[in-house]
Amino acid sequence: MRRATDEKTVVKRARRPEVRLPPLVPYGGELEPDGDYDGLEFREADFAGQDGAGARFMDCALTGCALDETRLRHARVMDSVLTGMRGVGTDLAEVTLRDVELVDARLGGVQLHGAVLERVLIRGGKIDYLNLRKGRLRDVVFEGCVLVEPDFGGARLERVEFVDCVLKGVDFSAATLTDVDLRGAAEVDIARGVDRLAGAVISPAQLLDLAAVLAAEMGVRVVSEG
């Protein structure tokens, strides 16, 4: 009986990407719609306002690139490492990220709604107003980063881990969570969608922190005696 109970409480761990880049060729051009980029290094490139919708990046390294208002809708990024990316209003709607590491990003208002993320590590940095509505996340790890008002509304999260990161004003409205591990998060502030936490695992301390939000969701009034 104990064994069956233990199996039910086990959280499946996310599979992290294992990116091994080949020797890369420096790239100094602009992005093009439906462009095909394979085995290239983009270093300190300014892609502000450029249109790379539908582009494919395979075995690439992007380091210190500016993505202000860059349009990458429907792009595919696979087996790549993105380091020190910065920008506001980047359009990554319905993008596919597979076996990708995003390290020390400084982004704001990123549009990732409808995106597919599989075996993705987001480590360090800060992302403000991340829009992942109706996205599909499988085997994704958020590690040591700060997410301000991330929106997971209507998204499907499976084997997603939050490790040493800060979640401020997160929205889980209408989201579906399966094997989502919040125990390692440094801070969890849920603005909406606390009723969608079935399928997530939290720590006893986090339960106490969320007590007021959970009580409000259940319609329970907490009033001190006297």
UniProtKB/TrEMBL annotation:
Among InterPro entries, the record links this protein to: 5peptide_repeat
Parts forming coiled coils: none
Alphabetized, the UniProt keywords read: Repeat
Q: What Pfam families is this protein classified in?
A: Pentapeptide, Pentapeptide_4
Q: What is this protein called?
A: Pentapeptide repeat-containing protein
